[in-house]
Amino acid sequence: MQIAVVNVARALAPTDSPVLAAFMAGLEPVNALADSSPGFVWRLVDESGEDATSLRPYEDDLMMINLATWESVESLFDFTYRTAHLEFLRRRREWFEHLGEPAVALWWVPDGHRPTPEEAVSRLEHLRAHGPSPEAFTFRDRCPAPSPRISVS
Amino acid sequence: MDIEAIALLQDPVRRRLYEFVAGAGADVDRNEGSAAAGISRTLAAFHLDKLVEGGLLDAVFRRPEGRAGPGAGRPAKYYRRSEGEFAASVPPRDYRGVASLLAETVAEAGLDEQAVEAAREAGRAGERVPLVEALRARGYVPLEKDGEVRLLNCPFHTLAEEFPPLVCAMNLALLEGLADGTPWTARMAPGAGRCCVALSKTNEL
What we know:
- Chain B: It comes from Actinocorallia herbida.
- The structure holds two protein chains of two kinds.
- Chain A is α+β, with helices and mostly antiparallel strands.
- Chain A has a single domain, classed as Alpha-Beta Plaits.
- In chain A, 29% of the residues lie in helices and 18% in strands.
- Chain A is built from four helices and four strands.
- Chain A has helices spanning 21-35, 73-81, 85-90, 117-130; strands at residues 2-10, 40-43, 63-70, 104-109.
- A four-stranded antiparallel beta sheet of chain A has the order 2-3-1-4.
- Chain A is globular.
- The model of chain A has no long low-confidence stretch (mean pLDDT 93).
- By secondary structure, chain B is of the alpha+beta class.
- Chain B has two domains: 3-81, Winged helix-like DNA-binding domain superfamily/Winged helix DNA-binding domain (Arc Repressor Mutant, subunit A, Orthogonal Bundle); 95-200, no CATH class.
- Chain B has nine helices and six strands; from the N terminus they run ααααββαααββααββ.
- A four-stranded antiparallel beta sheet of chain B has the order 3-4-6-5, with helices on one face.
- Chain B starts with a helix and ends with a strand.
């Protein structure tokens, strides 16, 4: 199994505005860092082929999505919080609103599965409605990968 | 039991060894340990192994740097600080539990910036002592090398794992506050197994 992660964020301004300039400029190196990090499998990109900044998962011109799959929760955690990505994350309030509800959800997917934005949004909505469960969970309340083996004891 | 692990450090020689290993910035073998504590290699190995038994250090076996392949000899035993965390309070207190609740509340309410500013002020309000001393007093285990200070310990480790963006940002601000008015500048330098902040000397001062 691989771990899927979705992150939604509502920008303070359109992506071509000066408010988002530093965020947009920082995307390429951060994405390159993700792509070369141990455990990285796949991330969603739009027609540009570079990133997902033009995709709008909700009927909201400012709501953006980031969707990826990784080999393990640990490798995803280490990239997210223990690389230069952390500096990017630390500055998120300069560019994005505080949503007041979970913005990140994790769930297990079969190897090679590439979740769609619709699937990702429904996982996030599940987390928001029901709290952490194997359907959708958080870094703090992790659920182990479902084991394909049948228990004999 | 945490208290038994901590009690191992009551022996001054063992405590010196522990502090040497924790502050070394690299794995340590018994020869280095014996030189640092001023005791024989056999005695150093005895105490280091006691610290491993108690869970304060981890022992790892590997070939010495720069030696590999046939003829490189047997792997040597090295020591490093363990990932474990030990605390004892008499009478019982649970500041970590309440810190976790407060951090959760701050994160959910989106009060990150206020918390970060409070941390910066707390750093600035610190006593004006040389930076490395101030860092040591706060539990950071600084290692100065090539005009840079790396921090070998995150004093907020468990909380930083639970709430990374919030606690790491507060930590950076606290260190920026501490470095205020000194020739040092704090910056984010995250990496697994150490504090996410490093300090460098500012050239113009």
